[in-house]
Amino acid sequence: MSQDDDRNAPLPRMEREAALKWARGYTAHLADVAGVETIASTAKTHFEDCIGANGEVAEDGRYSLFYYINSPAPSTDHTRIVRTLRTELTKRGYEITSYREFKSAYESSALSARSKKDDYVVEADTVGDGKDKPQRFSFAVRTPCMLPPGAKQQQF
């Protein structure tokens, strides 16, 4: 039964540091699949509270992680990157939840996919406007709500 079906279903368990290690590794893998480098200084980590459908926030240590890192890949490569990732993620059992290619003032692309197996989300898109902020390509992952090992899961 998924968390959507039962708000008290057991949450996946993982230490925050292990989740961060996975996020770093998976975004590096995505960049490798796309054939591009990343810029370590652009990496951002956000551990967030899990908020329930009615605004409830548990006090049992549960969290979700949003992590991203940018690539200096030129905008002319962004469409190729999202097409490559769309193919790879589909093979790995992800459902593509949004996909766009833009060719306006500058080229940009965006992709979002959710793992059918464990609810992890992958996002990849053009960031920056190319004027005030350099245009780069971002690789991001979001974990589902997780609980540290050993913590007792609060019930609602």
Tags for this entry?
156 residues, alpha+beta, 6-stranded antiparallel β-sheet, 2 helices
Protein model, in words:
The protein is an alpha+beta fold and 156 residues long. The protein contains two helices and six strands, in the order αββαββββ. It starts with 15 loop residues before the first helix and ends in a 14-residue tail after the last strand.
Concise synopsis of the structure shown:
By secondary structure, this protein is an alpha+beta fold. Helices cover 21% and strands 33% of the residues.
State the helical fraction.
10-25%
Provide the structure class. alpha+beta
Q: Let me know the largest β-sheet.
A: 6 strands, antiparallel
Q: Could you give the distance between the termini?
A: 16 Å
Strand order of the largest sheet: 1-2-6-5-4-3
What is the general shape? elongated
Topology:
Blueprint: H1 16-34, E1 39-48, E2 64-71, H2 78-91, E3 94-103, E4 107-115, E5 121-127, E6 136-142
Antiparallel strand pairs: 1-2, 2-6, 3-4, 4-5, 5-6
